[in-house]
Design goal:
single chain; about 200 residues; mainly alpha; 2 domains; 9 helices; disordered C terminus
Length: about 200
């Protein structure tokens, strides 16, 4: 057997590959060939030096998550009581608004009856939307611009009407509930996760 064939067989054995020559022939050759034994010693040294050693990798999970939160890539942790408190407060105000609007819808009389019923119907629809946002906070982002726009319009109209003497400041104070609802809804929208965009 030639030394080159033995080297090839020994290399395969060191690498854990399929044997190219019978083990008995290789061992017999090694027993009588000092050059191949020396080659084997050198090859074993090279194999040991190039084998991959396990490397300890530091766990960077916490640092990566903290950096992602700091950059706004991930929503921050929610405070359960604050989260639940926002939802409950918004829901309760929506129920109060419903309780105030339903009697107006049914009981408005006189020449302003139609306008009064329209306002009551609008208040009921708004209360239902707020109840939905309280129950399903992911929809708060959708309702927030609507309610904020409504509050801005109420504020502008009320300011003009008070300055012109059309209504008293006490009469427009009822719109304060809408302002509180808008603040709660805005806070809830900021804390809720954005809904995934459909593919």
């Amino acid at each position: 057997m030639r030394c080159d064939d033995v080297h090839e067989a020994l290399s395969a054995r060191l690498d854990g590959e399929a044997a190219t020559q019978p083990d008995a022939l290789i061992d017999a050759h090694l027993a009588g060939c000092a050059a191949c034994r020396a080659w084997l010693v050198r090859a074993e040294g090279v194999t040991r030096s190039v084998r991959l050693q396990p490397v300890e990798v530091p766990d960077l999970t916490e640092r990566i998550l903290a950096a992602a939160h700091a950059e706004g890539a991930l929503p921050g942790p929610r405070k359960p009581l604050t989260w639940a408190g926002l939802r409950w407060a918004l829901g309760l105000l929506a129920v109060v608004q419903l309780m105030l609007a339903v009697p107006d819808l049914l009981g408005v009389l006189g020449h302003d009856a139609h306008a009064g019923r329209e306002v009551a119907a609008f208040d009921i629809a708004l209360a239902v939307g707020l109840l939905i946002a309280a129950c399903y906070p992911e929809y708060a982002r959708i309702f927030a611009p609507v309610l904020v726009t409504l509050v801005v319009c109420f504020a502008a109209i009320s300011a003009v009407d008070v300055m012109q003497g059309v209504v008293s400041p006490g009469r427009v104070a009822v719109h304060a509930i809408s302002a509180v609802q808008a603040v709660l809804l805005w806070l809830l929208a900021r804390r809720s996760d954005p809904r995934p965009v459909p593919a």
